[in-house]
Each structure stands twice: as structure tokens, then as C-alpha cells.
Write a structure and sequence with these properties.
By secondary structure, the chain is mostly helical. It folds into three domains: 125 residues, no CATH class; 74 residues, Four Helix Bundle (Hemerythrin (Met), subunit A); 87 residues, Winged helix-like DNA-binding domain superfamily/Winged helix DNA-binding domain (Arc Repressor Mutant, subunit A, Orthogonal Bundle), CATH 1.10.10.10. 62% of the residues lie in helices and 0% in strands. The protein contains 13 helices and no strands. Helix 5 packs antiparallel against helix 6. It is elongated and about 80 Å long. The protein starts with a helix and ends in a 14-residue tail after the last helix.
């Protein structure tokens, strides 16, 4: 929608100060928030010239430049096919959308500066909100047309469908941020710029996941080592204490659900080991985040049991935790 049309729509909603008083608290808080914030944009010399709106509309590409459907090779695995349904943007269309998004934000910033936080005008606040809303819509349009690059990067870096889904979700905020920061005047395609932001975020997520898994496994291994070190076994005892018995002792401190999660996560008692949080979540009927919380809580309980002497040895062993 052209800037002039937005202003006409806002003017129709204009109210007098008498009609606006007393101002509701939500409106005043919104006005003050807008007055305090600075709306960022990528500028262009033409934005501040006379006839800038006509110049912008002249940049609008022909409708034939836009493909009507995605290419089959872009669809990828079935569960993400909907994410890449948006058609690719042609270079001219991409340039126009970035110019218009930043033009709207430029005018939103200029209008925002007119807001008086002590006596805010509803018309001015509404105009800023309308300009920002349309700029966000354009940002989302650009992002939707480039989700395929997120999917492509996730397919290369993931080892499972669940991990691929996680990476796609984690990479969406960086993609939106890349849209806001991209300078179309440099002559590069947005996909080149955004791919770096998306891949960097995915690498950070994978590194964090590996670090968490190693930490969790290290904590659990440390629990077993701590128990072995703290038990005193008579020299003439004929039966060696096997780790599975120690694990069984410690797991008595856990609830049934926690035992199931630890069994599946670390391959205890015949369970297949190394199952992902998503796999375990599907088996026990919980969210992945809840499974993660229970796993961490279970490890802490087991460490506390070993440290505090809650777990007792069989009487015939004639020893206790020290």
C-alpha cells in the first residue's frame, strides 16, 4: 500500500484531543514505547527526495518476473514441503521488496519522532503502527521466499529428521534478522548473505547440543566413578561389584518415569542407548524439553544419592558409603 494511502486511512480514524481524553493506559504505554525506540532501516538517497513514492512504485517489477510455483528439487523431505511452498523471488522483485520495506521503515522513523510522550496523538501513533505493520509483512514475504535455503542447510548439517526440524526452527530468527540488515544496494543476492547467518546459527546450535550431551554423559559417568571410589570392599570378598548393580542401587532414588528416561538415554538394562530426546519424548508421551529437564533432574538425584549415602550396600558386604 502506498504511503499516501496509509496516511488517508489513518486520517479517517483521526480523533480530537477531547475524544481521546482520558487516554487509556495501553495507548499511552504504546505511544511512550514508540517514542523511546529508534526504528532501524537501510537508507537510500531517493527516500528523502520529492517524488520518492512515485520513484519507488516505478521500481515495481512486472508480474511475469515471479515464478508461480517452487521447483520440485526445492521441496526436500515431505514434512517441510509446506515451508518451501513460496515462490522464489526474481532479482528485480527482491530489490523492490527490500526497497519498499526500508522505505516504510524510513517514514515510520520520521513519523515516530513527532510523537509527544506527554500528549501523544492517536493519529501519529496509528500511522507509525500501520507503517511498521506493512514493513513487517514485506519482511515476512522475503523470508518465506528464502526458507528453502534454511531447509537446504539443515539437510546438510543434520543427522535425523528430528534434528533437521530443530535446526530449521533455530535458524528462522537469524533469517528474519538477516532480512532487516541486508543492504540491497551492494549488488549481492540476499541468499548469499543469509546463508552465512543461517549456517552460523546452525553450527552454534549443534556445538551447544554436543556440549550438552557430553556434559550430561560426563555427569553420569562421574556418578558411577564416585560410587566406585566411595565403596569399601573386603579383600576376601569373592564377588566383585558390577557396575549394573551400582546403577540399579542409585536408580532406586528415581521415579519410574525418570528411570525410563535414563534407561533409554544411556542404554541401561537392555534398552537401546543413545536415543535422542525427541525419540524418548515420543515413547513416554512428553515434550522434548520436559524429557531434557527430567533427565537432568534424574542425574542430579543419583549424584546426591551417591554423595549423601542414601544408597546402601547389601548387609552381607559389611560396608557402607563413607
Amino acid at each position: 500500500m502506498p504511503i499516501s494511502a496509509l496516511r488517508e486511512r489513518t486520517a479517517r480514524r483521526r480523533v480530537s484531543r477531547a475524544d481521546a481524553a482520558p487516554w487509556d493506559r495501553e495507548f499511552v504505554e504504546t505511544a511512550r514505547r514508540l517514542a523511546a525506540m529508534e526504528i532501524a532501516y537501510i537508507g537510500h538517497p531517493a527516500f528523502s527526495t520529492r517524488g520518492s513514492e512515485q520513484w519507488l512504485e516505478a521500481q515495481h517489477p512486472a508480474g511475469s518476473d515471479r515464478p508461480t510455483a517452487p521447483t520440485p528439487s526445492a521441496v526436500g523431505v515431505a514434512f517441510v514441503s509446506g515451508l518451501v511452498a513460496a515462490a522464489l523471488l526474481s532479482p528485480t522483485e527482491e530489490r523492490y521488496l527490500f526497497l519498499k520495506m526500508n522505505y516504510l521503515r524510513y517514514h515510520a522513523e520520521r513519523t515516530r519522532r513527532k510523537i509527544d510522550p506527554r500528549q501523544p496523538s492517536r493519529a501519529v501513533v496509528a500511522e507509525v503502527q500501520n507503517l511498521l505493520a506493512e514493513s513487517v509483512s514485506l519482511r515476512n514475504t522475503i523470508a518465506e521466499a528464502n526458507v528453502r535455503l534454511v531447509v537446504a542447510a539443515a539437510k546438510k548439517l543434520s543427522r535425523s529428521v528430528d534434528q533437521m526440524s530443530d535446526l530449521i526452527g533455530e535458524a528462522m530468527p537469524p533469517l528474519l534478522r538477516a532480512v532487516e540488515l541486508f543492504d540491497v544496494h551492494r549488488g549481492h543476492r540476499f541468499s548469499t548473505y543469509a546463508t552465512w547467518a543461517v549456517r552460523n546459527q546452525m553450527v552454534r546450535v549443534l556445538s551447544r547440543q554436543r556440549g550438552w550431551r557430553e556434559s550430561l554423559r560426563s555427569d553420569l559417568d562421574g556418578t558411577w566413578d564416585e560410587v566406585l571410589e566411595r565403596r569399601t570392599i573386603p579383600a576376601d570378598h569373592e564377588t566383585a561389584i558390577v557396575p549394573t548393580e551400582l546403577i540399579a542401587d542409585l536408580m532406586q532414588a528415581l521415579s519410574e518415569r525418570e528411570r525410563q528416561i535414563v534407561d533409554r538415554r544411556f542404554g541401561l538394562h537392555g534398552q537401546p542407548g543413545g536415543q535422542s530426546l525427541a525419540e524418548i519424548a515420543g515413547q513416554v508421551g512428553l515434550s522434548k524439553e520436559r524429557v531434557r529437564q527430567l533427565a537432568l533432574g534424574a542425574v542430579e538425584k543419583m549424584r546426591a544419592a551417591a554423595r549423601d549415602g542414601v544408597v546402601a550396600l547389601p548387609e552381607e558386604w559389611g560396608c557402607d558409603l563413607v
